[in-house]
Amino acid sequence: MRRPWQGQLEKPPQEDVPRCDPANPLCPGARRAHGEVNPKYESTFVFDNDFPALQPDAPEPDADDHPLFRAASARGMCKVMCFHPWSDLTLPLMSLAEIRAVIDKWTEIAVELGASYPWVQIFENKGAMMGCSNPHPHCQIWASNFLPNEASLEDRTQQKHHRERGVPMLLEYAQLEAERKERIVVENADWLVVVPYWAVWPFQTLLLPRRHVCRLQDLRNGEKDSLASIMQRLLTKYDNLFQISFPYSMGWHAGAPTGPYLNADCSHWQLHAHYYPPLLRSATVRKFMVGYEMLAQAQRDLTPEQAAERLRNLPEEHYRLDRKEAA
After folding, report:
1. Quick check: 54 and 75 in contact, CB under 8 A?
2. Rounded distance, CA 253 to CA 149, Å?
3. Which residues are the active-site ones (predicted)?
4. Confidence class for position 254, pLDDT limits 50, 70, 90
5. Is residue 16 scored above 90 in pLDDT?
6. pLDDT of 133-170, one tens digit each?
7. In the Cβ-directed half-sphere of 62, how many Cα atoms lie within 13 Å?
8. In b/e form, how buried is each residue of 235-256, taking b as 16+ CB within 10 angstroms?
9. Is 138 a catalytic residue?
10. Catalytic: which of 138, 162, 268, 318?
11. Residues marked as binding for Fe cation?
């Protein structure tokens, strides 16, 4: 952290995003790549991705009998979900009712796609630094006919912990973090957000329910309300850290696998969400996961306890709202 920096500087995120740009394919009433016209939506809006990475009718690959060249078809669906009709809003600047609408739509799609697909991945890439190609507030939802690598690893490790200790791993972990307090960023009666003990990204966080919840659709009504609240608080702190629209990749491991696993014993699973922000020292200096970290092991630039304390001590009033009041 003290090393002089003469490396790459990132361009700070754009703050003067037009509220509604007719040329933006995610805006209400706009025409998308293949000619479809968006409805004049007023809340969330979901559509099939115009450039899907997964398709339901993907062909089988050619057979190869050598174990080093195994392959199988990857089938699925890819959807885009707009959070709000305005391009100049992000989740922390939306109302709690608007965030709750996002959570309800996530749940609805998870149930719909999870009826047939084993894995439904909800994720948001926020900011150009994280590869987001459009500033309009949105996420993606991919459903696949297989368990992806991260999901498969989490399934095995949670199952092993449950078998050895008789309790879901992330439920036990949340209880320990709630007792120790040192890595908590924000918390309420139903949820807590921590910088996880194993964090490698500078301000990485993990969002956990306090009770055992297998899947997103198992949340109670009040837990969805408190989820909207804690998301708004966390994301406001993120933005306030460097007073920018904070970039990150986040995603729900929206609980146990679905499809053929719906009737299986998945009591080892615990619903949770990961947030992976890239920024390290400032709005323009990011962490680079290169060299030793790619070839040997990830290194921490600051401890989880330091990162949690910095985030915890930030105000929960968004810096842009402060500016408006001052003006």
Report:
1. yes
2. 12
3. 138 (tele-ump-histidine intermediate)
4. confident
5. no
6. 788 999 999 999 999 999 999 999 999 999 999 999 99
7. 3
8. bbbbbbbbebbbbbbbbbbbbb
9. yes
10. 138
11. 154, 253, 272, 274
Q: Which two tokens stand for residue 193?
A: 């957000």
Question: Quick one: tokens of 43?
Answer: 């809340």
For residue 324, what pLDDT is reported? 61
Reported confidence tier of residue 1, pLDDT bands at 50, 70, 90: low
- What are 256's two structure tokens? 């146990």
Q: How far apart are CA 56 and CA 292, in angstroms?
A: 39
**CA distances (Å), origin 214, targets 105, 158, 168, 218, 253:** 18, 12, 10, 7, 10
One-letter amino acid at 306 equals Q
- How many CA within 13 A on the CB side of residue 84? 20
- Widest pairwise Cα distance in the chain: 69
* Cα–Cα distance measured from residue 149 to residue 296, given in angstroms and rounded to the nearest whole number: 19
Which residues face 79 on adjacent strands? 48, 141
Binding-site residue ranges: 154, 253, 272, 274
Three-state DSSP string of the chain: CCCCCCCCCCCCCCCCCCCCCCCCCCCCCCECCCCCECCCCCCCEEEECCCCCCECCCCCCCCCCCHHHCCCCCEEEEEEEECCCCCCCCHHHCCHHHHHHHHHHHHHHHHHHHCCCCEEEEEEEECHHHCCCCCCCEEEEEEECCCCHHHHHHHHHHHHHHHHHCCCHHHHHHHHHHHHCCCEEEECCCEEEECCCCCCCCCCEEEEECCCCCEHHHCCHHHHHHHHHHHHHHHHHHHHHHCCCCCEEEEEECECCCHHHCCCCCCCCCCEEEEECCECCCCCCECCCCCHHHHCCCCCCCCHHHHHHHHHCCCCCCHHHHHHHHC
Residue 130 class from Cβ within 10 Å (0-12 exposed, 13-18 middle, 19+ buried)?
A: middle
